[in-house]
Amino acid sequence: MLHFDRPSRKLLIGGILLTILLATTSVNFLLTSTYQSGTIRESKVPAGYLEENPSVDKATNEPSLYCACNNKENEGVMEQSDPHAEERPLIVPDSFLPPPKTVMDKINANLNDDRVLIVATANYGMRNHVYNWIESLNRTKEDKYLIFCFDEQLYEHLVAAGYGAHASQVPVSWLHQDVEAGFEEYYSVKYRVITGAKTWVVQQLLYLDVTVFFSDVDIVWMRPRLREYVHTLMDIRPETHVLFQQEGVDQKIVNSGFYMMRPTDTMKRLLAHTIYLQDNHPTMTQQAAMNAALDHMDMDIRTSSVVLLDVLHFPNGFVYFTHDLPRRHGIEPFVVHANYLVGDDKRQKLKDHNLWYLDDDWLSELDVRLEKNKTSKKTDKS
Prior knowledge:
- Keywords: Membrane, Transmembrane, Transmembrane helix.
- Helices cover 43% and strands 12% of the residues.
- By secondary structure, the chain is α/β, with parallel strands linked by helices.
C-alpha cells in the first residue's frame, strides 16, 4: 500500500482536478465546433429564396407551381396569439328587412331547382365581361341567373340589351359604402369596395333562404349541367355548406369569386365575420377577409363544412393560363377564371384562348346609341 505525505497528496489531487478540467474543455470545444459547422452548411440557401424567385424553376426553365401571387391578399390580417380566436364577440344578424318587391320578383323568377340562384355582381366599367359571362351561360344552357348592378348605368345598359329580366340594381339598404361605376385596377381602394360589396349581396340572399351560386364575371362557363354537378357535390355530403374554387394550387386559399353556398347559420356567421373584417381593416380585400374568417372555422377534412373544388376542373388563371395544366392532363374544365390578370391583359388572354365570345363592335354600337339617348334626354329637359 502506497503512502504519501501531506504535500504529495495535495499535489496529486491538484493534478487530477486539472486533468478533469482539461478533458471537459476539450469535449465542449468539439461539440461547439460540430454544431457551428452544421449550422453554416444548412444556411447556404437564403430563407427567402422561394418568395424572391417564385416564377421560374431553374432546372427546367418553366414557370414554377409555387405561387406568391396572392401574398398581397393576406396583408392587413391582424396577428393574434390564438390563431382561431376572434378579435371580439361577433354579431350575426338574426334577420334583415325584405328587399323591394321588384327585386324579390326577379329573384323568384330566376331561381333554379332547390332554390339555387346563379348570381353575379358588377358595375358599368365591367360591362364587357358581363356580356361575355352571359354568353357563356347561354352556351351552357343556363337561362336563369341574376346580375346585381352596383350602378344605374349598368342596369340601364342591360335593359337596353334585352337582359332586364336578369338584372337588378342593388338595393341601397344592402350597401355599406357607395360603389363607383368605373373599372378599377386590382388592389386599389375602390377595387376593395367593389369586391367587398359582393359579400353584402350574398349575405342578404342567404337570409332569403337562397342557395347562392356566385360567379365573378371574368369567369367563362364551359360545360352544360355545371350547376347540377356542383349542387350534387354539395348534396351527397350533408356536412358540406360551401364549395369554393381554389386560389393557387396548394389547397390553402379559397377564391371568393366562385362558390356555391347554402343558407345555413354557419355560412351566415362566416359572411358576418368576413364583412366585419372588411369594414374594420380597410387594406384587406374581400378575398383576404374571407380567408381570414375561414381561419376561425373547423377545417378538419373529415368534419369541415368547407370543401374545395378540384383545381383542374375548376382552374383559376394561374392554373389555366400560366401552367396550362388542364390541357396538359387532357381535362376539359367546367369553368375558366381569368384572375391573376388585370386590365386589357384579362380580355386579351381570353381572346387568345378563344374564350372571348362578345362582339366588341356590337357593344361599341350599343354604347354610342345609349349615349345619344342620354344626350337627347338632357337636351329635352333643358
